[in-house]
Amino acid sequence: MNWKRALEEYRNYLVLEKALSDNTVEAYLRDVTKLSSFCVLKAELKDCTKVTVEALRDFIVELHDQEASSKSQARIISGIKSFFHYLCIENIIEVNPTDKIDRPRLERKLPDTLSKEDVDKIIKSVDLSNTHGERNRTLLETLYSCGLRVSELINLQCSKLFLDEGFLIVIGKGNKERLVPLNKTLIIYLKNYIRLVRSHQTIASGHEDFVFLNNRGKQLTRMMIFTIVKKQAEQAGIKKSVSPHTFRHSFATHLLQGGADLRAIQTMLGHESITTTEIYMHLDKDFIRQEIIQHHPRK
Q1: Which of 20, 60, 146, 278 has its CA 20 to 30 Å from the CA of residue 253?
Q2: Active site residue 149
Q3: What are residue 60's phi and psi, to 5 degrees?
Q4: Is there a catalytic annotation at residue 132?
């Protein structure tokens, strides 16, 4: 089977059978496309069913030579393993050549966070007299108060807001929905933004249900969220690099420091595995040490 046909059928499998989001599907296909290009151009393997363990190892060596990080290599290998697993379950191949390929060992990097004071500085730095002030303050508060991913923020829908009841529904990875409670401050911000700003916009066709819109009445892009966060962090005098994900990490860390149960944080973040959430246990060793000393009966 040639690579083009295999990739087309693999895409259908990811969309129809696995029901993965568009972003996830494209990520998987991008990784397998890297392998297909290598196989066709350098290993002379135009048939994906003829790929050998040796060819895969040569491909991984090339990734290393290109100075791809361990994290990138692990992601690409994971995508390739998924592709060959698909070929096996469809009986296109009998032996999976990736079974003998190991993922690189990853160093566990702790995510960067902001203090509660710095979060407040950033949100308060928004100029509400600016055309987009009310919107920007609201989306920053939403990032922090709900711990959303960027994709979840830009895809947030008005039909999923239940402000009087105090919660919203997020469509996360794999199109899975989760319920996120809202604090009083965010409820006020959302109501003000919708009533004072959004209701007066001319909204583009097909964008009627998105909460956060640009000045053309269209859904905000990921890049626009990054730009807003970076600009407000600079205006607030924050020296460290701040991204939308920094708000998500800060949200989880502050919940943990406040005594929230790890399982509750897992649910709020939409993590499939508790192992992913457990990384926040390592963020503030001094805080955790003081908590144990303070509450342990053997003082």
Answers
A1: 20
A2: yes
A3: -65, -35
A4: no
